[in-house]
Amino acid sequence: MQATRRRTNFGTAGLLYCLTVVVVALASVNRPNNLLVWIFSAMLIALLVSGVVSGMMLLRLRAHRIEPRRARVGEVLVVRYEIRNLSRFVPAFDLHIEERKLPPSIVNAGEAWMLHCGPGDTVHAEGVFRASKRGLFRFPTFEVWSSFPFGLLRKRLIFERASEVLVEPEIIPLQPSLLSRLARGGLMGGVRASVEVGGGEDFFGVREYRAGDSIRSIAWKRLAGTDQLATIERSRAVPPRVRIVLDLRRATSDLRVAEGVDPRALEEDAITLAASLMALADRQGDEFGLTILGLDVAAIPLRRGHFHRAKVLAALAALDLDQPRDASATLRESAERATVLFVHPDRADTSISPAVGWNFTAAQLSSLRIPLALGGET
């Protein structure tokens, strides 16, 4: 991509240098001296060389921002840049890449920089950022600049190319036994029997013996009565299923919170808790789905896997809490057999939860997480 604008600036060193040149020039005019004239000439030539060299090496540069695939609150966001030098003879040195007009919640934690880009070369650099808030953010403009060779003039190439990145909510490591007590305890119906033959432990049926069947799977009691070999089939192992319901029916200003508590922060904590419960279910091999009450967001069915996890996180990241809420939204009746976990920003509302549902509030986030001394994967 070709630069849309070019700029030349004097840094602090450049301004001091120019001031020194002016002082030497005045001294050489007032008291002509060969030494002063030579010093003034050398300083002036150095300034001109700095402008010409830096301008020539940036003249044929092209830059492209490679959009990041994902980002998450509290984690490093790496943005890659591709720099191409179309010049056949002139190399480029000391190239800095900076993002301009970043949103306040995106902080630059490490500048992208490259030492050398030779003629005809394509070089990549990485900039490091940190996001403190979830949502959809824009990277509107970036610039490539260099003050090579003397650091006096700063030549800039400005590239106006907007990119968007969806920042996922933070995932807090929760206690591993949390879902085990709920989904696997038999109280919620999260564990279900499969209707397909597989390699599980539950009895599925009996069929005729086939060559190659394991001797351990032979139904010996049937052999004693019919004198015919038969094989016991086992059902396929099916993981527990968890449906997470995020209750956002109340507007931010209508939340029932104590004085001095930020209601918007509680909503963000509720979203973080929902994402953390999903991540815990994914790590334990459970199937999980997501339902959001109060906003016009389609329910996500029960699945598992990397792409399903990314779909759920993207839905949580894209939530706009400034949209109008539907206070009458309820959980639709379904025949799916799953553990239902309700997450509320303020207080638990049992009117929308079934008798077998479990309710969590945003205030419980700190008590459900793994202690920092123990750590945990996200």
Structural features, described:
This protein is an alpha+beta fold and 378 residues long. It has 3 domains: 59-168, Immunoglobulins (Immunoglobulin-like, Sandwich); 177-190 and 240-368, Rossmann fold; 203-234, no CATH class. The protein has 7 helices and 19 strands. Helix 1 runs antiparallel to helix 2 (34-59) and helix 5 (263-283) packs antiparallel against helix 6 (306-317). The radius of gyration is 32 Å and the shape is elongated. The two termini are 37 Å apart. The model has no long low-confidence stretch (mean pLDDT 84).
List the helices and strands and how they pair.
Layout: E1 5-10, H1 12-30, H2 34-59, E2 61-66, E3 71-72, E4 76-85, E5 92-100, E6 106-110, E7 112-117, E8 122-131, E9 135-139, E10 141-146, E11 153-159, E12 163-168, H3 177-183, E13 203-208, H4 220-226, E14 230-234, E15 241-247, H5 263-283, E16 287-293, E17 300-303, H6 306-317, E18 339-344, E19 358-361, H7 365-368
Parallel strand pairs: 3-12, 15-16, 15-18, 18-19
Antiparallel strand pairs: 1-11, 2-4, 4-8, 5-7, 5-10, 6-8, 9-12, 10-11, 13-14, 16-17
Helix pairs in contact: 1-2, 5-6
Low-pLDDT parts are: none
**Strand order within the widest beta sheet:** 1-11-10-5-7
CATH architecture of the largest domain: 3-Layer(aba) Sandwich
Q: Give the CATH class of the largest domain.
A: Alpha Beta
Order of helices and strands: EHHEEEEEEEEEEEHEHEEHEEHEEH
Could you give the distance between the termini? 37 Å
Please supply descriptive tags for the structure shown above:
single chain; 378 residues; alpha+beta; Immunoglobulin-like; Rossmann fold; 3 domains; 5-stranded mixed β-sheet; 7 helices; 19 strands
